[in-house]
Amino acid sequence: MKAKKYLSRVYLTLIFGILYIPIITLVFFSFNSENSTAEFGGFSLRWYRELFRSSETFVALRNTLILAILSAVLATVIGTAAAAGIHRMRNKFFRRTVISVTNIPMMNPDIVTGMSMMLFFVAVVGILGLNYDDMGFLHMLIAHTTFSLPYVILSVLPRIEGLGKSLTEAALDLGCTPLQSFFKVELPNIMPGILSGFVLAFTLSLDDFVISYFVGSSSFQTLPLLIYSMTKKKVTPDMYALSTLIIVVVFALLIFSNVRASKENKRKEGKKA
């Protein structure tokens, strides 16, 4: 029994080590005074200063955030409406077919999705007689919204199904129109699923490289594309500094989310008592 506990602790230590040692290494070398990942020349904020002086990095970061926020908002709105529509389908066979088709993009390799979208955009731009490079942001916005949609539907649909029909029917009996019952009754109750879908869509867009690489253009560059272009030569340590700042922000948001969820659970338990 003791041997099993010991082995389980060793296993967990190895797993956490594999997951977090690379991140700790990145954070550590972001404070290195030397442009090296082989030796530590001393503690310095040099690369953080270089980061704030780099206009190219901030343009790429701005593009990434704008793209992630807009695509997440569009995916959340469209995905919520789609989930509500799927829930109201009466034909079970057609409903299952739609859900299966919706899930295909999640199983489809990113490289296939990226290539197919690139060919589609090239064909559309060619038919309309437009310049592909001038449409870089629009292409990426459509692509990011499209591949985020199934994840939003997957987050919202179980919430709608778990809500049941009683609240909606009660609202309709009290004089609400179907649209009013959705916004006044269903929407507040499925909001946790909508927020989860939004966060997931935002994260997927922020992290995406493969699809952005295929559908993007030289006129609109995101942070993953900028970092990839640096790997052809050498990734400068100011990218370590930027990654460290992103890690700190994500960690702070995670703590805030957990604290808020804990307070919400305590409040609900207090009401039940």
Q: Describe it for me?
A:
The protein is mainly alpha-helical and 273 residues long. Helices cover 81% and strands 0% of the residues. It is globular and about 70 Å long. The model has no long low-confidence stretch (mean pLDDT 82).
Instruction: Give average pLDDT, whole number.
Output: 82
Structural class call reads mainly alpha
Report strand %: under 5%
Largest sheet: none
* Cα-atom radius of gyration: 23 Å
| Individual helix count | 11
Helix fraction, binned, reads over 70%
Outline the low-pLDDT stretches: none
Report the count of strand segments: 0
Principal-axis shape equals globular
Instruction: Report the span from N to C terminus.
Output: 40 Å
Characteristics:
single chain, globular, 81% helix, 273 residues
SSE layout:
Elements: H1 2-29, H2 46-53, H3 55-87, H4 92-107, H5 110-128, H6 136-163, H7 166-173, H8 178-207, H9 210-215, H10 223-231, H11 238-272
Helix pairs in contact: 1-11, 2-11, 3-6, 3-8, 3-10, 4-6, 6-8, 7-8
What's a concise summary of this model?
With 273 residues, this protein is mainly α. Helices cover 81% and strands 0% of the residues.
